[in-house]
Endonuclease III
Amino acid sequence: MNADAIQRFFVTLRDANPQPASELEYSSVFELLAAVLLSAQATDVSVNKATRRLFPIANTPARIVALGVEGVEAHIRTIGLFRNKAKNLVATARILLEQHGGQVPRSREALEALPGVGRKTANVVLNVAWGEPTCAVDTHIFRVGNRTGLAPGRTPYEVEMKLLARIPAEFAKDAHHWLILHGRYVCQARKPRCQACAVADCCDFQPKTTAS
Ligand code: SF4
């Protein structure tokens, strides 16, 4: 995908959805961090169902620590890997209390030092909470980046670096959401919906799929 196609690709996605947002439900930076931590290998829909049970009871580091691992588990057991996620969430909450005054830190280094928080989760928090132009490469973005020719790479990190280098600055803050939503609803894993794709003329993927 050349620079002209990349520009048209993002103009089209922006025109269709000028203010994209995360589909995870949250009302504070800590809730966002917790929801993203719980979302590894789980759908946003399943995480929202669990956090609708968990957050009314515990939505601050102090309340999560007070609830404890078993208490958290009881509210999130419908999500995959819930035991490990409960353990990480409580450990993360404890570190926030002990080292960050109960606040979610704004630096990548401090975020990635939290249990269960890797580069992808840190990127989401930096982008969604503070508007930083990061690009968290999840399964959807990895696929779209490779399939379209926008940011081919063998690893999520390679794709992320290409995206950061190739996405024009005016789209950098929202690109992460546009790419996830495009991958989730149009450029789907098993069969991309090329016949219904608004950016088909910018995309290198061949042959394009048809409705049949
Ligand atoms: S044309 Fe097809 S492969 Fe390309 S972005 Fe659209 S859905 Fe994905």
